[in-house]
Amino acid sequence: MKPLIYIVEDDLNIQNVLKIALENSQFEIMLFDHAKDLFKELNIKTPHLFILDIMLPDINGLDIIKRLKKSNTNHQIPILVVSAKSSELDRVIGLDIGADDYLVKPFGILELVSRVKALLRRTIKQDDNHILTIEKLVLDSKKHRLTYEDKHQQLTHKQSQLLTYFMSQKGNVLTREDLMHTVWGYDFVGETRTLDVHIRELRKKLYQLTNRNDLIETIHGTGYKFEL
């Protein structure tokens, strides 16, 4: 069975580009002009992936993400934002409220397909060994829940994947290319702002829990290292 992707996009030209590119890559596609139609269809069938625009005629795409993440049925389904809103703040907001990836229009078809495949590859199967513990820091990678002593932080899906890799490689220097390939599943080295945004937001949440801002160390010219 082909993976099913729900696309919410009101620009008919972009709809057509997305549909052709993804159907040629052996995905099943359903297109929606309005968010209300998406939520009606979700009562019938659940997709493997969402692709969302931000600026929509009825409901803002960010509000769609919030609603999906509150749903018991849909909160684990990965979300790729495809938007003309290209500022760093736009990316931070989108990723921090739960989007798993953010692609700016205009985009390359090969990159789009690669990102879609990467998101699906890393979410269709989950490892049973989902609890990671280092001293007092405990990460439940299935629930995306981080605990330190008696305090808790909820992570986004990608923040959880990123911290899982950091914790499993504690003390090792990880290059930016390695992090992009392992966590996002593609090698678009020039598109590293997504990584920067996730690490900055992850550092904030770690600091709120532990009162330490040195857990993810920047290794200049190379990448990052996690220590506790």
Describe the structure.
The protein is of the alpha/beta class. The protein folds into 2 domains: 118 residues, Rossmann fold (3-Layer(aba) Sandwich); 96 residues, Arc Repressor Mutant, subunit A. It is 40% helix and 22% strand. The chain is built from 8 helices and 12 strands. It has a 5-stranded parallel beta sheet, sandwiched between helices. A 4-stranded antiparallel beta sheet has the order 6-7-8-9, with helices on one face. Strands 10-12-11 form a 3-stranded antiparallel beta sheet. The protein starts with a strand and ends with a strand.
Name of the CATH superfamily of the largest domain: Response regulator
- The CATH class of the largest domain turns out to be Alpha Beta
Task: Name the quaternary structure.
Answer: single chain
Order of helices and strands: EHEHEHEHEHEEEEHEHHEE
Helicity range: 40-55%
CATH topology of the largest domain: Rossmann fold
- Going across the biggest sheet, name each strand in turn: 2-1-3-4-5
Major sheet details: 5 strands, parallel
Instruction: Give Rg in angstroms.
Output: 18 Å
Question: How many DSSP E strands?
Answer: 12
